[in-house]
Specification:
Elements lengths: L2 H14 L1 H29 L11 E8 L4 E4 L3 H10 L3 E7 L4 E6 L5 E8 L13 E2 L10 E2 L3 E2 L1 E4 L1 H6 L11 E4 L2 E8 L13 E6 L12 E6 L5 H18 L8 E6 H41 L1 H9 L4 H37 L15 H27 L3 H7 L6 H38 L8 E7 L6 E3 L4 E4 L2 H14 L4 E7 L8 E6 L12 E7 L3 H5 L3 E4 L13 E5 H7 L9 E6 L7 E2 L4 E7 L14 E5 L6 E3 L4 H4 E8 L7 H11 L5 E6 H6 L2 H38 L1 H9 L4 H37 L8 H23 L7 H5 L3
Parallel strand pairs: 5-12, 9-11, 20-26, 22-25
Antiparallel strand pairs: 1-2, 1-13, 1-14, 3-13, 4-5, 4-10, 6-11, 7-8, 9-12, 10-11, 15-28, 15-29, 16-17, 17-27, 18-28, 19-20, 19-23, 21-25, 22-26, 23-24, 23-25
Length: about 850
């Protein structure tokens, strides 16, 4: 028989076994659809085109100091310059600040907050993308600096040119204000240009002179290797030169070394790991689908023993039978592939809808391309052939004598054991995915319940970041000097805000509790710790009403008060975690600490005088990605240093405005906006949100919701497939053993006894699957803990609820076909053959 003949025969069989075709096609389609959807996402990230010239030569350069526990940090400017001057592997190196910096844009329309990305002179040119209009930066641009740190000239994005400057053709040379300072446009980058693939909202790139501070390492180094240079060679040279630089400034190089990463790996390595983890998780759904198909094919093979025996008796060899059976499997896989691609098309649309807003824009452009089509076809045909091979081998192994003994029905004990093993696998895999979904859902519910740990009702928040030389300037010592105008600005803003009808209380705080930035400190009277091992705490400047406005409870002592000014003794209020961690068994009140502003090490400014702890307040809840609760210190807004290292002046110039409203909080937005503009028209309040909205949109909650949604979808598909599989197999069992049940009932057995027997037989593999699934779920929870966030690995509530749900669903799926036994007529069943 030819291949065409095999196909025709397979189609005729579909008419005889429609249940097999529908259940197997549906199962395979669901598995292929879910897996292909996730592969589409991985494919988008893995093959994302950066658009850089000779991207295979682009790398990211890191520095590491393992003895200090630092595995990855940007290199200092002096190391970069030494590489370019003395090295032979790098063609160019450019610097850029990953993440961008918020600034106030004015002079084009109403003042608004946008993101600018600080770069050095080569930060744009290193990637080899020519501007659409004008040029990028040249060394002479640093001859005219603003705030002694940024070039007055500026390169803008295509979107900024179109939306904020009207898309005028003669835009080069025009000006607008950034943080109150005039900036001149020298270039416009092409549409869609991104220096970093996840920075979707950069308005412009600003050449920053602070990049040239010898030991500054706040910018990431992007390098272009010379043609023919390997990553390993560049890394070896960079390590040697880095150690020479460290020795030249009188320090011990220790284990200082360089790390050179291909740019695509550096940008997407971590996201690819997470997405590959998710692809591995969703592959469980495909495995369950394949187990379904294999189980159904085993059952069908047992039912077709007479047919196959007859063909063998008339001369068909085992190879001929195998060819026929595998042709049927391939045809079935094509049906599953078509259904799976349809589901993948819908699945990618659903994925785009649930992706959090803070995820890269590229994850909102997921589609099914030729590579995805090939993957779906390969998975469909490959899985069908792989999981259909054993059933085909068994079905084609014909023993004519044994077939006559069994009457062609029911199947051998080996086949039944095989089907039971597959049922165990289905239930176990479903249990694993549902446990993952349950743990993530518990983490999400805990996050939403606990954050932020105080009363959020009627609480409106907004952000203000002052810019311009009116508020701070750079000194010749590469320090940023803040001015008294900062205090005056916020005093006048608060005065106006508190006078707005509907405002019950208002205060300012450096950062809201969802955001943490730790600084080193010392406890006066204790031995100084080793460098790099200083204790750290989240530091916040607050006014006298901020903590009360937020609803953070005082436990003992007093709050920050109006009398706490620069000329009075410096004080601090700490949270309960700080008191318990650093003064266990002792009273924190009256203790003295000395704070430092900065990341630690060089560039950190120590406060001129110590602070007495005058109050202890309750902890607020922090996002679950913190491995331990941060210790927190609140200090008076008017007690601060005047000079800050690098960009650290923001702790004084940036404030979150918190307003407790007696009316609808969002009704106050207009009044708050006007209050800020009345004080300084070049400044703006932005990101107005209620505290509930801020919690709901925080990365911790949105990420938890996203991954919980994915795993819940995986789990739902898994349990659906497991139920379909159990239903399909039990339907086959009942239909193929009808005569046996008829004989049992003719000899006196009650239908209820037969039902109990069948449910008992199905219960054994179900319970075995639940036990294995619980072990697998525990392993998955540990993996989730390491990949995503801190969660309870052995949550008894989740395991119990999921186990009960799986047991009920599995028994329910088995009950429907088993219940048909009660409708069997023994006399008719005896004639069934």
């Amino acid at each position: 028989m030819s291949v065409v003949g095999d196909l025709r025969y397979a189609l005729r069989l579909w008419k005889r076994y429609p249940t097999l075709v529908v259940v197997a096609g549906l199962s395979l389609g669901l598995g292929v659809g879910a897996t292909t959807t996730m592969y589409s996402v991985v494919n988008r990230v893995s093959h994302y085109e950066l658009g850089f010239k000779d991207v295979d030569r682009m790398v990211i350069l890191w520095n590491a100091e393992p003895e200090k526990g630092i595995n990855e940090q940007p290199p200092t400017w002096e190391i970069v310059q030494a590489l370019l001057k003395n090295g032979s592997t790098f063609e160019a190196i450019g610097l850029a600040q990953f993440g961008g910096a918020p600034v106030t844009l004015s002079g084009t329309a109403e003042s608004s907050r946008v993101l600018q990305m600080p770069v050095d002179v080569n930060g744009l040119s290193v990637v080899g993308v020519a501007p659409l209009l004008g040029r990028t930066y040249l060394p002479e641009d640093f001859d005219d600096l603003i705030k002694q740190k940024e070039a007055r000239s500026i390169v803008i994005s295509h979107e900024t040119w179109q939306r904020r400057l009207g898309g005028v053709k003669d835009v080069i040379g025009t000006s607008f204000h950034v943080d109150g300072e005039p900036r001149t446009v020298i270039g416009v980058m092409p549409r869609g240009f991104k220096l970093l693939p996840w920075e979707d909202r950069i308005a412009f790139w600003a050449a920053n002179d602070l990049s040239r501070i010898p030991q500054a390492r706040w910018m990431v180094a992007m390098g272009r290797l010379k043609p023919g240079v390997s990553v390993a060679a560049a890394e070896a040279e960079a390590t040697a030169i880095s150690r020479q630089v460290v020795e030249a400034r009188g320090d011990k190089p220790g284990s200082t070394k360089a790390k050179v990463e291909p740019i695509h790996q550096a940008f997407f390595g971590r996201p690819e790991d997470v997405l590959t983890f998710l692809l591995g998780a969703v592959s469980f759904v495909l495995l369950i689908a394949c187990a379904n198909v294999a189980n159904l094919l085993l059952a069908a093979g047992a039912a077709r023993q007479k047919e196959l025996a007859l063909r063998a008796a008339t001369g068909a060899g085992r190879g001929r039978l195998m060819s026929q059976l595998l042709t049927e499997n391939v045809l079935l896989s094509l049906v599953g592939c078509a259904f799976g691609l349809l589901l993948a098309f819908w699945g990618t649309r659903l994925f785009v809808l649930i992706v959090p807003e803070d995820f890269p824009e590229l994850l909102r452009d997921i589609h099914v391309d030729a590579r995805v089509l090939g993957f779906a076809l390969l998975v469909s045909v490959g899985s069908s052939l792989l999981f259909g091979l054993v059933p085909a081998l068994r079905a084609s192994r014909i023993d004519l004598v044994e077939v006559m003994k069994e009457g062609g029905r029911g199947g051998s004990g080996a086949r039944r054991r095989g089907r039971s093993a597959l049922l165990v696998a289905e239930v176990a895999l479903s249990m694993v995915l549902l446990v993952g979904a349950g743990l993530m859902m518990r983490a999400l519910l805990r996050e939403q319940r606990d954050l932020p740990g105080f009363d959020t009702r009627g609480l409106l928040t907004a952000d203000i970041l002052l810019g311009g030389t009116k508020y701070f300037d750079k000194t010749p010592q590469d320090m940023n000097l803040v001015t008294p105008q900062v205090e005056a600005f916020y005093d006048r803003v608060l005065e106006r805000v508190r006078a707005i009808p509907g405002v019950a209380r208002a205060g300012i705080i450096s950062r809201l509790p969802l955001d943490v930035w730790s600084h080193p400190f010392a406890i006066v009277g204790r031995a100084a710790p080793e460098p790099g091992k200083e204790p750290r705490a989240d530091l916040n400047e607050v006014d006298a009403q901020a903590l009360d406005t937020l609803g953070i409870r005082l436990l003992r002592g007093r709050m920050i008060e109006e009398r706490d000014v620069g000329s009075s003794p410096w004080v601090a209020v700490v949270n309960k975690t700080f008191a318990d961690r650093h003064f266990p068994g002792a009273e924190a009140l009256g203790q003295t600490i000395r704070l430092s502003i900065g990341p630690g090490g060089r560039g950190t400014v120590e406060e001129p005088q110590p602070r007495e702890i005058v109050g202890v307040v309750a902890d607020v809840a922090y996002p679950s990605f913190f491995t331990e609760k941060p210790a927190a210190v609140y200090v008076p807004f008017r007690q601060h240093v005047w000079q800050y290292g690098r960009e650290d002046e923001w702790i004084h110039t940036r404030k979150a405005l918190a307003v407790r409203a007696s009316v609808d909080p969002l009704a106050l937005v207009r009044g708050l906006t006007e209050a800020v503009r009345e004080v300084d028209r070049d400044q703006a309040a932005h990101d107005f949100m209620t505290m509930d909205q801020r919690v709901a949109s925080s990365p911790s909650v949105t990420n938890s919701r996203f991954f919980a949604s994915l795993f819940t979808t995986f789990g739902a598909l898994a349990i659906l497939l497991a139920m379909v599989g159990i239903y399909g197999v039990m339907s086959w069992v009942v239909s193929q053993r009808t005569s046996e049940f008829g004989i049992r009932m003719a000899l006196g057995a009650r239908a209820r006894d037969v039902v109990t027997m069948l449910l008992g037989q199905s219960l054994r593999p179900i319970l075995g699957g639940l036990a294995l699934g619980a072990l697998g779920g525990f392993g998955l929870s540990r993996a989730l803990n390491s990949v995503f966030w801190r969660m309870t690995s052995a949550d008894p509530v989740v395991f119990s609820v999921i186990g009960a749900l799986m047991l009920a669903a599995a028994l329910g799926a088995a009950w429907v076909p088993v219940h048909r036994v009660t409708r069997i007529d023994p006399q008719q069943a005896l004639r069934y053959e």
